[in-house]
Design goal:
single chain; about 325 residues; mainly beta; RNA Polymerase Alpha Subunit, Chain A, domain 2; 4 domains
Length: about 325
């Protein structure tokens, strides 16, 4: 009935020859439509199914052609909208289904309140077909693996990144058979090359889908990489040399007593760095069973705000004292 009504209305609106006869025809059609729509009808309304919260750990066999047909009785005015707009019914796997024998089961009787909510009180639900929907599934394994970036960064003169390159999210979930996911311990992003960088980094990168990953489900197809880029400068401190593991019965004289340490730091943190933040050590045990007359200094401590640091001297001469 509603398909015929819609067709006639469409033809009337498309006609460009609206004359007196046409005007009477439109009026007649309106009276006819009002008469028809004032009557009570029994109709079948087909609901498209929308699935929500399908479990990741299960491969659920979902047939996209499945629909729910609801038989209703109502006045034409209340049914008219369903001739123009296709209704949808959401099936939530967290609340609307039950689990039995490796099958998710949707039962119409248990969800009749949800279907009734789709209609106004003036619509009576007579039947729901099918009364049961079944969704068989296979169990899958879930594994969380880190994301490895493939980023090459070239900085503009005097600039560097003050923190490590961060990845959001830093790991993803892969879902599939236990045998397949056992072989994968990380995923890698597609390559990105940045040149002459002097501003903060904020880029979206796609996950590189290898042949193995293409057979699995990956929770995220892309990640975001971020880095704080700042203007850097170099500073130098003379840091005292500390001799460790010197036997109690041994006395030495060594030179130099301090070693220049050059370091790179952002301009924002330059004034925060102190000489006491660094420590240079020489381990006396390193010369055991050797005839060396010098020690190798090592930088064993530097502040977190410093990007990098290096010693400007690599030998400490010493002599044994009697």
């Amino acid at each position: 009935m509603f398909d015929k009504l819609k067709t006639q209305l469409s033809r009337s609106l498309k006609s460009r020859k609206l004359n007196v006869f046409g005007a009477f025809f439109v009026l007649s059609f309106c009276f006819w439509a009002l008469t028809k729509l004032s009557k009570s009808y029994t109709e079948t309304i087909v609901f498209e199914i929308v699935y929500k919260n399908v479990p990741e750990q299960h491969h659920v066999e979902i047939d996209s052609s499945k629909k729910v047909k609801v038989g209703v009785k109502a006045y034409g005015f209340n049914l008219l909208r369903y001739s123009f707009f296709k209704p949808t019914l959401q099936i939530d796997f967290k609340t609307d289904v039950s689990l039995k024998n490796k099958t998710y089961i949707w039962n119409a009787k248990q969800n009749v309140a949800k279907i009734n909510a789709k209609f106004k009180n003036s619509v009576d639900v007579l039947s729901i077909q099918p009364d049961t929907l079944r969704f068989p599934y296979q169990s899958l394994a879930v594994k969380k693996v880190p994301v490895k970036t493939n980023v090459s960064i070239g900085y503009a003169s005097g600039y560097d990144m003050s923190t490590k390159l961060q990845v959001f999210p830093d790991s993803v979930k892969i879902i599939g058979s236990k045998k397949m996911i056992a072989k994968i311990n990380e995923v890698t992003t597609k390559s990105l090359e940045l040149k002459n960088v002097n501003t903060n980094i904020d880029k979206s990168l796609q996950i590189e889908l290898t042949d193995a990953l293409k057979q699995l489900k990956v929770s995220n197809k892309s990640v975001t990489v971020k880095g704080l880029v700042e203007k850097f400068t170099e500073g130098t401190f003379n840091v005292p040399v500390t001799i460790i593991n010197l036997p109690a019965d041994t006395n030495i004289n060594y030179f130099p007593k301090t070693i220049p340490v050059a370091y790179n730091v952002s301009l924002n943190n330059y004034k925060l760095v102190k000489a006491s933040d660094f420590r240079v050590e020489c381990n006396f045990k390193d010369i055991n069973n050797t005839e060396k007359s010098f020690l190798i200094p090592k930088l064993v401590k530097l502040p977190e705000t410093v990007k990098s640091a290096r010693l400007k001297q690599h030998k400490v001469e010493f002599i044994l004292m009697q």
